[in-house]
UniProtKB/TrEMBL annotation:
It comes from Paraburkholderia sejongensis. This is Sugar ABC transporter permease. Residues 88-302 form the ABC transmembrane type-1 domain. Residues 1-20 are annotated as: Disordered. Keywords: Cell membrane, Membrane, Transmembrane, Transmembrane helix, Transport. It is found in: Cell membrane. The keyword Transmembrane helix applies. It is a multi-pass membrane protein.
Length: 311
């Protein structure tokens, strides 16, 4: 109605404005094209190629015989391979021992930084925590070789101060495993600390001050007040660190090359040996796909039992 006069209804609805941001011809779509091609080239294509190779007999040393389709033979051979299960067991042991230590030390550092009243100290600590995370895996492995060297390593020097005899860290199976653990804890405990510190900053200050007046025990405050704010970050830590440990290759290969013997031959190192030393790309692809499935299952379990509790 306009100026008191009713307008005739011709049965047509007014045209709605078209959303230009979602049209294929819009500038936003063309800006996404490089990211889509990069994701397809780096992530999707290698995954599809590995899945294709896992169902074929693909041996680099015998390409003359072709790459016949062999169904699930590579997967059956992998699941019945004792060396595969041995490497997976060492990886699981490394994950189950190292990850809780990193979370515990990270939580301790986060609580200390959260309780400090010195802004400059907190800022300096945050910058210092970023340094190990910014170090590449290969450099961490080289640093580990220097620290645990028998002749001039810092580890034997510190042990000598306490009267310990020099140890050949990288030649002993147990000590080599522990050495890799120490370097991984040094590199990724700061990551856990920063994530958990971010969760602690989400706790309302009024509720935290009231809780400290109610009880002086920090364990009760941590469990009843701060724990719900830490669980989402803890879920992210568990997912990311578990995935990193399952595919950890650079630091181990640079530091010990999987030795001595098979003491530090984790699953990623074993897959590399099968694919590029035994030249069996089909078997290595099947093992990589199984490792991917295991990573997805672990992530779903973390979300189901840790993140759901936070929600």
């Amino acid at each position: 109605m306009l100026n008191g006069t009713a307008q005739p209804d011709n049965g047509l609805k007014p045209a709605r404005p078209r959303s230009r941001g979602r049209l294929p011809g819009s500038p936003a779509f063309w800006f996404l094209i490089p990211a889509i091609f990069t994701l397809a080239a780096i992530g999707i294509y290698p995954l599809l190629l590995a899945l294709y190779n896992s169902f074929h007999q693909y041996k680099l040393a015998d390409l003359a015989s072709g790459t016949p389709f062999i169904w699930f033979d590579n997967y059956i051979a992998t699941l019945t391979d004792p060396s595969f299960w041995g490497a997976l067991g060492r990886t699981a042991l490394f994950l189950c021992v190292t990850l809780p230590i990193e979370v515990a030390l990270g939580l301790f550092a986060a609580l200390m930084l959260h309780r400090t009243t010195l802004p400059r100290m907190r800022a300096l600590a945050r910058v210092s925590l970023v340094i190990p995370m910014a170090t590449t895996y290969a450099v961490v492995g080289l640093i580990g070789r220097l620290i645990f060297n028998r002749q001039f390593g810092v580890a034997n020097y510190i042990g000598g101060l306490f009267g310990m005899p020099p140890q050949d860290w990288l030649a002993d199976p147990t000590l080599a495993f522990v050495s890799v653990m120490i370097m991984d804890i040094w590199q990724w405990t700061p990551f856990c600390a920063l994530i958990l510190l971010a969760g602690l900053t989400m706790v309302p200050k009024e509720a935290e001050e009231a809780a400290r007046l109610e009880t002086p025990r920090w364990s009760k405050i941590l469990w009843h007040l701060q724990r719900p704010y830490l669980l989402p970050g803890l879920t992210a830590i568990l997912i990311l660190r578990s995935a990193d440990m399952l595919k950890m290759f650079d630091a181990v290969f640079t530091m010990t090359r999987g030795g001595p013997g098979t003491a530090t031959e984790f699953i990623s190192v074993y897959i590399q040996r099968v694919g590029f030393r035994l030249f069996d790309q089909g078997m290595a692809s099947a093992q990589a796909i199984l490792l991917l499935v295991l990573t997805i299952v672990l992530s779903r379990l973390y979300i189901r039992f840790v993140y759901r509790e936070a929600a």
